[in-house]
Amino acid sequence: MAFITANWNPLGEAFYRKIELYEMGWSLRDGLKECLVAAAPYGGPIALLRQPQRPSSSARPQLEIYSSSGANMASFPWKSGPVRQLGWTVCDDLLCIQEDGTVLIYDLFGAFKRHFSMGNEVVQNQVLEAKVFHSPYGTGVAIVTGASRFTLATNIDDLKLRRLPEVPGLQGAPSCWAVLTQDRQTKVLLANGADLYILDNTSCTPVTPPGLSPQACSIVNMAVSFSYKYLALFTDSGHLWMGSANLKDKLSEVDTKVRTPPKQMVWCRRPKSQQPSVVIMWDRLLLVAGECTDTIQYTLDEESVCVAELDGVRIVGGSRHELLQEVPSACQDIFKIASMAPGALLLEAHKEYEKSSQKADEYLREIKEQSVLGEAVRQCVEAAGYEHEPETQKTLLRAASFGKCFLSNYPPEPFVSMCRDLKVLNSVREYTVGIPLTHTQYKQMTVQVLIDRLVYRKLYPLAIEICRYLKTPEYQGVSRVLKHWACCKVQQKEEPDESIAHAVSVKLGEAAGISYSEIAARAYECGRTELAIKLLEFEPRSGEQVPLLLKMKRSQLALSKAIESGDTDLVYTVVTYLKNEMNRGDFFMTLRNQPVALSLYRQFCKHQEQDTLKDLFNQDDDHQELGNFYVKASYKEKKLEARLSLLQSAVDEYNKAKNEFAAKATEEEMKLLRFQRRLDEKGEALLGLSLQETLHALLTSNFHKQAEQLYRDFRVPDKRYWWLKLTALAEKDDWEEMEKFAKSKKSPIGYLPFVEVFCLCGAAEAAIERRSEGEISTVLSRCSPTTDRALLERLNRARSTAAKK
């Protein structure tokens, strides 16, 4: 036990420990001297901008990116402007903020991604200081210019620059400043001598920290906690003030007895800890201050940088990488000297059990008598998560497993979950990986984010193993990793297309949730069109293939794929694209080679583009369809000459198509139109009517001579004409004329009896409707014994009713 607590240092009611994470693998001759350093939180990468050892006109700074273990990830000479600040985004992209306000963004491997500017005013006045911060909106950048004005961008992915109000009396850069995030608003807290101001979008408000030492003449440094809830101020008198970030509450104030302004100051506070503490760094001194008047001091033997974390502070030096943190309460309870906590007793019981000592039974009996065995197991499991050394983890987990054997209803999930978490954490803490996550950070960041970070670092095998070990759903785990691997693979320009396409298809196989179209799109973006086409062959969904093929200008292939899919909407999409991209002749020739697409396009043109349909028929020399087109078009024309012209065109086309029947029928139609035009009495009222409709109109309007002429000229069948004449006479109630017509015409099928019945029924209906006793009597006189009985009854009732009136 003694060796575990050897590096513990008490501060108030808590203990602090410094754990070595790695011996750094980099080779820095002068350590971190003359370096601009930025390290990402959550065990992220480290960026160094190293100035040349012998400045000369040709020497350039060197930008280097390392893992947390010091493994080199990228290195290249800096060829752009002077850099004021480095910082990391939440996605582990490197931000380089230049003196002219330009922000350049690089990925983990030094590949340039994009850039943006902080505004024209910044270009003119230059950047004095800059800070990169993280907020609920994403990664932000704040700068102060030579004109003593602040500019903010709260989210670099949705850039909206905010120029904050002027600070009264401020000339040059403030003595210190920090970015605050309160109530979903981003503000700047700055000190100008002893005066404190808060800048928001519209105002500059002076504030006073409650209980600040009256000895302070100036605030020389400040630090905001990882959660933005707490604030620390360091004064020129050497006093450290700690309180809430809204400056309403004071937590403590400590006299450090060091008046030199510190190089760095960061908070060191566990999420659930009640003790506030701040780490202050000078050239050769590291000091931890808390609520009490005492402090913890560490001597630094090399240039170092402090990195604020969720549950501690990472200290990066030229030769080693350490973690300074408050010892978690579970670890204190178990490992503190002479501790009688349940977890400590269970650990001792297990050690004695492994020695086959009877003392194990005594410890267990003591724990059981206090009914705290469940608490003892929980403490050992929790403490295992806080320990960095695998051997200590195993010791605690074995003790927890030993204690579980004597519990009948202890849930296994916490123990199993911790074992899984530690296996994952130990794998990513390996030197070759270099992500020194704590269990607290791991739970905060989630497994999905950890997998993303491994993928971003191209550690695909480890990411896949973790997904399989944790049994992550395939579409969220293995498939997602493989897709990223494939997207990276297609960017390897030294490999031929065939080799890459084969490797991707073999590796991905039938993995669920992978879209080959996304991989093909990445290949196309890299200028590898042929590789993209080969990859699209593995994409089973035509709806994903076609848009990318169109984007790649492979329209013929896109049309073939759309037709193969059987999706008419997809075919229409491609055809519309081709129509807009090609000239008319090439477009029609393309469709001729694709009958399905041509047929669908014709259907579209029938409803939307009649003129285009005509051009299609002309292109194909389809005289039959052209004739049909002209006939249909003639029906829409109101003017007779236009109709006749269209019908003549139809006759010409039918003749070319050798369709005599259609040509003759169309000529008959034209003949009818010309006849209708000659009927001056009716004017153009007959135009557009069919032969039967024209005869009916003439008969009902008493143009009997014209109807007879039309009947003879167009050789209308007798039966049809007689029926039309009877119908017209009946509509006019002209029963006498109908009777004459019936007696004067000799129908070969015996129309006279039918006409008589037809006349009688019509006359009866008309007499009943008029309620004329004389007319009803006349109709009754014409009835015979064969007349319908129901009709006779109706006529008799109608006559009786008329007589009463």
Automatic annotation (TrEMBL):
Q: Main site of residence?
A: membrane
Q: What keywords does the record list, in alphabetical order? A: Endosome, Lysosome, Membrane, Protein transport, Transport
**Claim: Transport is one of the keywords in the record:** yes
Residues of the Vps16 N-terminal domain = 5-416
- Record's subcellular location: Late endosome membrane; Lysosome membrane
The Vps16 C-terminal domain covers 514-758
> Which BP terms from GO are recorded?
endosomal transport; intracellular protein transport; vacuole fusion, non-autophagic
A single GO molecular function term of this UniProt record = actin binding
**Gene3D superfamilies attached to this UniProt entry:** Vps16, C-terminal region
Entry's Gene Ontology cellular component terms: CORVET complex; HOPS complex; late endosome membrane; lysosomal membrane
The record's Pfam families line, in alphabetical order, gives: Vps16_C, Vps16_N
Per the record, membrane topology reads:
Peripheral membrane protein
Task: Please name the InterPro entries in this protein's record.
Answer: VPS16, Vps16_C, Vps16_C_sf, Vps16_N
Assembly behavior: Core component of at least two putative endosomal tethering complexes, the homotypic fusion and vacuole protein sorting (HOPS) complex and the class C core vacuole/endosome tethering (CORVET) complex. Their common core is composed of the class C Vps proteins VPS11, VPS16, VPS18 and VPS33A, which in HOPS further associates with VPS39 and VPS41 and in CORVET with VPS8 and TGFBRAP1. Interacts with RAB5C. Interacts with STX17, MON1B. Associates with adapter protein complex 3 (AP-3) and clathrin:AP-3 complexes.
Which protein family is it in? Belongs to the VPS16 family.
Task: Describe its function.
Answer: Plays a role in vesicle-mediated protein trafficking to lysosomal compartments including the endocytic membrane transport and autophagic pathways. Believed to act as a core component of the putative HOPS and CORVET endosomal tethering complexes.
Listed name of the protein: Vacuolar protein sorting-associated protein 16 homolog
